[in-house]
Every structure is written in C-alpha cells, then in structure tokens.
Amino acid sequence: MDNTSKKDNELQAEKVFAGKKFEVWFQPIFNYASKRLVGAECLSRSRDDNGNLIYPAGFIPQFEESGEITDLDMYVFEYSCSVLRQWIDKYQDLKGFSLSINLSRLDFNKPDFLNILEETVKKYSIPRDMINFEITETAFVKESSHMIRNVEEMHNVGYQIEMDDFGSGYSSMNALGSLPIDILKFDAKFLSQSAETSKGGKILFSIIRMSKWLNMQMIAEGVETKEQADYLKSIGCNLMQGYYFSRPLLASDFEEQFISRYRLSSFSQGLETSFTELSAFWNSSSDITMLFDLYLGGTAIIELSSGNISALRTNDRFLEISNFTREEFETWSTHLQDIYQGEEKEKLYSLLKRASESKKEESCDLLSLSLNSHREVYTMTKAIIISSTEGSELFFVTIEDITKRKELEKTNERLLERINNIMKSLPGAVFSGKVVEDRLVITFFSEYLPSLLGYHDEEFEDKCAPDFLKIVHLDDRNRVFSFATSITNKAEGMEKTKCRVQRRDGGYIWIQISGTSQKIGKINYINGFVFDVNEEVKRQYVLEKQALELTTLYDTVPCGILRYKLVDGVPILADCNKMSWVSLGYQSKNDFLHSFSGFFLTESFINDEVKTMENVVEKAIKERKKSSDNYKVKLPNGKMSQFRVFVDPLSAYGQDNIIQLVYYDITDATNKETLEYGKTLMSIFDEIYIVDLDLMKIQLLSSNLKDDYMIYSMDLDYQEAESAYKNVDPAYLDKIRAFFEPHNIKDAVNRGITPSIEYMAFDKNREKRWYNGTILKMSSGRYLFCKQNVDDIKRAQELKQSNEELTILAETDAVTQLRNRYSAQKMIEKRLSEKPENEIDSLIMIDIDSFKQINDTIGHSEGDRALRIIAREIQSVFRKNDIMARYGGDEFIVYLSDINDSDLAKKKVGGFLTEILKYEIDKIGHITCSVGIVNIIGEDRDYLSIFKKVDYALYKSKGLGKNLYTVFDKETMKDYNDIGDRD
To answer: What is the pairing mode between strands 560-567 and 570-576?
Structure first.
C-alpha cells in the first residue's frame, strides 16, 4: 500500500460515533500444518481523547443498547472491503485468502441489511468466497426465524458463515446440524494450565471429531504458545489465530508484514516443556507431548471402539511415513482401518487384539495404500495398550517404514524365481566348481546335469561331484583339467571345451563345458554351463562325410556341359562331360560328336531354333555377357523335350577365350532325375533350392518338410522374394534379398568363402524358428541354396548369452520402475544393430525443468514424486514396445522403433508435455520438461553419435524456455557441426 493510500485509509478510519474515533485492526489466521496465511479477522478498536486504545468490551455493549452497533458493523465491513480491494489490485494473487467480519444479531433487524452487504461487495468487486461472516454462538441460541432465513440466504449466495465463541453457549447438536454453518470457531481456553487440562483436551478432541463428522472447519483463536499449536495440530485442528502468531495490526502494518509477501508468510516460535502422568497425553504443555511430537519414529494414540479405529493424536513423522499431509489425513483419522485393504485390515485388528490380551508390545508388518499417490507403504507396526474402559481401548502405536526392505525382498524373490525358471528352461546345466589338487570338485549344479547323465541328484552329488574328472573319457581328461586350471588362473573372459562323459548306464555322450572365473575369498571358482552337444557332434560328423561326397558330385550333375575354345573368334568344341550326351539320349560320346553339324547339334535342335542359338552364342562372344533360354530338343528316340540352355563367356573367371554351354532337361522326367540328385543332400539339409544367378530365378528342388518330394517350379524374380519366402519373418526379407544378390554370392565364392545366412521364418504352426542357409557352388557353375533348421542351437546360444549378462544388468530404476541407463543402452544398441536401413527410429531425451529447485526447496521425497509422475506419463503416452528409461538424476530417454513416420516422435512428445502440465508441486508450480528429439534414418547405427545429437537438441530446447522440445534437423546440425569445428 503506497503512502497516499495509507494516509487516506487512516483518515477514513476516524469516523465518529457518539464522540468516539474507531479503527479497524486485522489479526492473521494461519494454517499451522502448512505454515501459510489463510485470512484475517477484522476487529474494531476505539481511542479516547488521549489516543489510548479502547477494546470492544469498552464500547460494544453500549452500541448494542443504543442500536448503533449495526452502523459500526457496516463501517467495519465497508472499510475492510476497500482495503481488500486495494490488496487484490496491488498483489493480484490472493487465492485462498479471506476476511472474517463480525456481525451482531441486531444487524438482521435492519430491513435492508442484506442489500447493504451486496451493494458493498459489488461496489468493491469482492469475490464472495473471500468474505466470512462471524456470528456468535449466543446469537444463534437467541435466533429468530427471520435471522436464520437471512443467514441461509447469505450462505446460499456464496458467503462462508462462522459460529464464533463456540462452546461458550449451549448449542445443541441438532441446532448445529440444521444451521447453515461452515466454520466453528472456539477459544483455546480449553488448553489453559489447570488441574483439569486433560479434561479440556478430551473435550476439545471431541469437538474436533464432531466438526469432521459435520463436515465443518475448525478455527482455534487465542492460541498463545507453541505447545498449544502443536497439540491442536496433532488432534486435527490446523486453522489458528492468536498472539503466538501475531497481535492485531493496522491495515498498513498487516500489509507490510503479511500481504506483501503472501506466498512466503510463515512463523517460527520457541518451545517449553514440563511432565505429568498418563493424563498428560491430553495436556498440550506436558513433557509427554514434547516426547510424542519429537519422537524420531512415527507415533500415534489410537482408539478402538465398536470395531472402529480412530487416530486421536499423531506426530508429524507418523504422517510422513504414511505418506499423508495432515489435511489429507483428517479425512481418514476417524476410520483409520480404511487405509488398509482385505487381509491387511484383519492383521491390524489382530495386532490390537493381541496387544490387548497380552498387555505387552505386539508387532506385525502391514501394507497400507497411500491414497494421495497410490503408492504401497509397508510399515513395521508396534502397539501396546495404555488404557481400557467399557467399549473403548486406547493404544500407543509406533510405525517404522520398511517399504524399501519389502521391495528388496520382493525383488530378490522375483530374481530367484527368474533364475530358477531360466535354469529349468535352459537346454543345459548351470554349475559351480573348483580345482583341488588334481580334481575338479563340483560345488553347485542345477538338476539338469544329473538328469543328463542318468543320476538322481543325491547319487550324482555322492559319486560324481567330488571329482567330475572321473566320469570324463580318459582321452579327454587332461584337456578338461587344463581347461579348468586355465579358467581359475584367468581374471576374466569365458572359455569352453568339448569332451565325452560317461553316463550312469556306461555309455558316453558329448558335452560342451563353458566357464568363467570368480574369486570368493582366497578360492577361485569356476562358474559356467554344461550343454548336451551329442547330436551336434554327430551332425558335424555327417556334414564332414557329406562334404567329401560333394567333391564327387560334379560327375553326377544332371547337366550337359560343353566348352568351346575361341580360335580366331570361331568357337571350337574343346571338352564335354558325360551328361552332355547322356542327357540327350546318345549311347556314346562318338555318337554325340558325330551329330554335330557346324558348332552345335543340328540333328537335335529344331531347325527354326538353330539360327537363334547361333546368334545367342555370337552375341555372348562379342559382348562377353551371359544369357539363357529354353529350346525344344528332339532326342534320338524321337521324343520331344524342353531344355534350358545357358551360354556363359567365362571371362569372369579369367578365361577370356572360353565359351561354356550348360543345358539340362526341364521336362517332368528330367525334373524327377534332378530331384533324385537333390535327395543325396537331404540327409544333411531340410530343403534345397536351385539358384539360377544368370536368370535371377530360384526353384525349390527338394524338401523333407513336406509329406512327399515334389518339384516346386516357382520361377520367381528376386523382386518377388515375398512370394518365394512367404514364411520368412518380414524383418529379414531385406537381408534375404541382399544375400541373393548375384554379385554378393559370386564375390564370396571367388574369395573361397561359402556364403551363408541365418534368418527367422514361421513354421507350420506359425511359430518363429531360426534357419541357416548355405550356398554351394557346383562344378557346373550352378548354385544350390541348402536350408537347415537351427532353432534349437540358436535358442541355446541366446539363452546362454542372456544368462551371462543377467548378473550385470540391473533391469529397473528403483524410483520410477523404468529401465535404468545400462539396460536401456544395451537394448537400444541391439535395436540399432538390427534396424533395417529403410526403417525410421527416434531417440527422445527428457529433462525435468527446475528439478534441483524441487529437491532443495521441498525435499527429495517431493523430487522422487516428480520423477514418478514423469515416468507414469511416459508410460501412458508412449507405446508398450518403446524402450523407456530413467537415464540420470532428472533425465529420461525413450527409443521408438519402426515408426515409419518422422513426425510421430513430435506428436508423442507434444501429448506428453500437455499431460505433465496437469501436475503441480507445492512452492514450485506446474511440472515442466525440456525435450530433445533425433530421428534415426538410414545407416546411422552408432549409439554414442546418436546420443550426442539428442543431447545437443535437449540443450537447444532448454535455451528456448520451459516445456518445449527441439528436433535435431538440418538447422540444428549446422550449429552442431560449427561447435564440432571450433572444438
């Protein structure tokens, strides 16, 4: 308030009634639980000729007798409204603040009384919810129907009605239930120092409990000590006024001390103590009250009556552990059992029953639901009975927060269950052992190991565990011992070996042992896995045998091969294989050669196609390009057949003067012969395809996945790979296409590499399985694609790798229940490595604005609440398959895979920023975040590079203000590169 306004208001306050000057003083009303100013009572004061103050008792009776009391009340009301208007205009944000105006019952006799009130409020544009009217209890007792109607009308239009001096008269409960009263105001004289203090405390507690039942607020006036304030707060009365907080002040002083810093208005006073016996629980100034309030743990006095549990007193620590504010707890204090559900509620009743019967301290673990945050709170709750009357028992209760311990117990249980499930599902055994002299002692093993070798657990432990080497084949024993010794002397890394071990029935099987070293105390242990590789070793033996057979396959290839040497550009036959004449039906090579006329088989090829054939060869010689086509052939027996002929200038193989013709019968009869050729490989592979790199075609030759052997003449271009491989997982189609590119296959073969690929496809039950495909080049120059189901081996490898990483991956962040930084990075790096080039992914980084201010101002528990809010909204807005993690103290990351829309990340982030604005933090305001986004397109798969970009986008966003996001685009890239150049 400026000096001019201050002077005007003080002059206005000098209105004279019967020769006296009157002033309006303001006494603050505080919410003691939140330490905040909530209002003020407007009080009238008079002065004598010497300027001395005269209090209301000195003039109110005379004014009531003379009838001038209404003029005085209206003056106080109008003056208070004018001051409030100035405060609103000057300070604007006075939300939650109200003035309490005293009214006399005589005011209601004035015919236009309500109109005067309304005209004054409209004159100064005062919101009705900022005005409370105080009417004494005695005025209500002497009520007239006319007065009650007026009060009801005032209440209905929005004014709050206070019953002042509650307890000084004899208001009945029926009257309180029927009157339009919002607030009960009582004098703190109930807490005066006297021999009956405990009775006063009990009376006061009963009043407060009654007010809650009637849904009324309570204001305690006349509070003079901290002991009184603390006691009132502990029994549920938070609104107070009195000399402990401040004496009444003139408007200018009240404005300076409180209104000018409304949001910071608080108070701090001292503490005094004394001691008494049990009744001192109701004495606000006793040492017991001090100990109760200052006890380091959560403490409460509760009453059990007719099955209902009420909290009579609680200290601040009790509410803090229970995760309630004192205002929130008021709703539940009269039925405390309702914050427990089901079995937990029964455990609470059982605890009190045991404490009542034993007369000793009893305890149990309880789970309650924090209703303001829906967070589970575990407490170690202890109770001892302190008094008992008919139908009612009082207990002294303490609680200790054991939520973290319980969460750790649950986490350990989950981990143990997960580890046990993993061990049960692994196609192998987990073991731990140590080298002792010349023995390999097994100290721990999963049940799979004895089962694999035909033993019961106890039998294996007795016979095999003391020295595992005894059951290892004699030829492999030294190698296994060296393997174990090497691991124990190695600081890190995993080693593996294969060996034969004897089963209980005397037979041998092949196993693979993998292990790492772990030092516990002074002993080096071996931790690892045992896998059954007996079938794998057998399969390897078969593969080696089949590889030998493949070397002779050229002699039985069902293709005719003719090689011509160019002499002065003219092709002269230089060589031919046996199938070149056999496939055409000739009895000998001479008969075949005698059928030649010119450079090819004039007798066999239909006349109108001979010229075409000659043109194809001439073109191949000239352009050095491969070509192929189908030709009709007349066999010596007169039968017409269809042959496929390939013309290949072998310049790609360094033979510039050689032209090769390869041909085979593609009629049904010859196809059957070709299939018989494929059957020789079917003992090794599941399916065999003919791959024609010249025509860019693929043809299924044979499959043991079908009920019978059939040729599938698909003749599909590579561009139609989806049809040829309709069962292939879509994620691997691009990989398959790239694998079958002719130049990729030929380049690998020319460098002595056997091209192979692993991919996933759906089996007949539409379940994903791993397959391995290998390209074999035949001596004819043609290629076979041989496919094999390797799902069991691949799954075993994946499970093994997963188990190796299990001990170093902490999957979730304890505060937010999102993934932590380590596991998120691993998952993102894996997705980046598998991301197809044509897929669009996004990485998002989120940073909470002013997070340090939250922790520094109102504590880490509120900071943790902010983190949980952000985590909950991230999970709500983003997709379930997105990777979501808490990356650092106040940072989060989200990775979106296969979004196929570069704007999806922006849409999701926009929705997220809108949702978090709905949350407010006390003293801080709305929660806001800054966000950086980078879209990952093409071959960009380097995690650190991508992370630096999104981190830079976040940095740019924070520079623009709060609750904004920045996308790393071309403009951002320019600034980013400039910084890199300067570095």
So the answer is: antiparallel
